[in-house]
């Protein structure tokens, strides 16, 4: 009975120890990625590059957009469309119109493969081929667009670190439970094979309880 109580206490202690670090890990701020995109290089209505590759979710993405279009008066934007039911504005990310030679900076956090956080806004966004789509408002119809790509092709909306920590937690608990089960089995096997308990009369004769 004492052994069982101690085992339970030990298990509770270890479980507590496993929970605490994972709770702290959740508060680690996401990494920040700085990227620079050109608009209209060589007078063509395209982004260069056309993909923003992030290593994990969540990631804070800071984009510097430069309109390098040599065509006088050619305006471009860097825009991401919200698909929320009633968004405050249709675009959750938007530089507004940039004239040739101008640049702007926008920042957003990729929270899920289809969700961004910008300030107090947390909304689903337009996808293109399953990827977050950014585009230029005046040239969307002529195909001036690009994508935010997750380097590791994860389809789960659960954050990767969370999965790893939960798995490690359960593997740890199962390991402890397995070890204690083996100890209990060993205890009964040794007890059962002990001569003292096989021959009780001899045990009493020797003055045992
Ligand atoms: Cu454009």
Structural description of this entry:
- There is one protein chain.
- The chain is α+β, with helices and mostly antiparallel strands.
- The protein has 2 domains: 69 residues; 121 residues, Cupredoxins -  blue copper proteins (Immunoglobulin-like), CATH 2.60.40.420.
- The strands form 3 sheets. Strands 2-1-4-7-8-9 form a 6-stranded mixed sheet, with no helix packed on it. It has a 4-stranded mixed sheet with strand order 3-12-11-10, with no helix packed on it. The protein has a two-stranded antiparallel ribbon with strand order 5-6.
- The mean pLDDT is 86.
- The site of copper (II) ion has 6 residues, from loops.
Layout of helices and strands:
Blueprint: H1 2-25, E1 32-39, E2 47-48, E3 51-54, E4 59-67, E5 79-81, E6 91-94, E7 103-112, E8 115-118, E9 121-124, E10 127-128, E11 131-135, E12 145-150, H2 160-192, H3 195-198, H4 200-205
Parallel strand pairs: 1-4, 3-12
Antiparallel strand pairs: 1-2, 4-7, 5-6, 7-8, 8-9, 10-11, 11-12
Helix pairs in contact: 1-2
The structure holds copper (II) ion.
Copper (II) ion binds next to loops.
